[in-house]
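Contributing new records

If you add data, match the layout below exactly. Sequence lines come first and carry their own label; structure lines follow with theirs. Keep one chain per record. Anything else will be rejected by the validation script.
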Amino acid sequence: MSPQPDPVPPPSTWAPPTGAPFIAGNVGRFFIGIVSTAVLIIALLFALAATVMPRVAGWPAVSINSESMEPSFGAGDVLLVEPYGAQELKPGSILLFDDPVRPGFMSHRLLAINVDGTLTTKGDANDVADSTRIDPGEVVGVGRLVVPLVGWPSVWLRAGHLVELLIVACAALGLLWAARWGVSAQFDPWLVLVPPTPARRSDDLSDDTSRNPACFS
């Protein structure tokens, strides 16, 4: 009689441990995975707020590249702006208007509405008000919401800082790699690998039959 091949054992399964100790090193890896996953989720939510919300609300997104409005917002933040129409302007509002000094736009707080109808603005981080008064016709929009930090890639790209962009890209790939430690069950230190039950050989089954034939009748 030719020998029977060994049966293929069933695959291992995951189950909660029953008092078995876990490896302490896996706890740190699992914690890193959880933190990486949380960072990616928060970054994704911020990115959606800066891209989807402007389309839904009709508020253009403007990347900030200066610190003149800190601590309210600063370089790298994104300001969502409601287009200016006939709405009433009040002191304290954040205005987006044509920069009177250089090409582009400026976002400063409305400090006062003058008797002649012009507007006096000021950056929160500046000690004095802006020297040039703004005509209401130069106002482009009113700031409504600030999304922090997500505008840095745009700021770096305009400034030609490719090294910073490369660092952020590498960091994002690292977070994606580490996130699997927090979402996959095989890296959970509080789960243990249950060894499979050894499959019985056919010759063992024959021995049981010969010893106890009644159980197969």
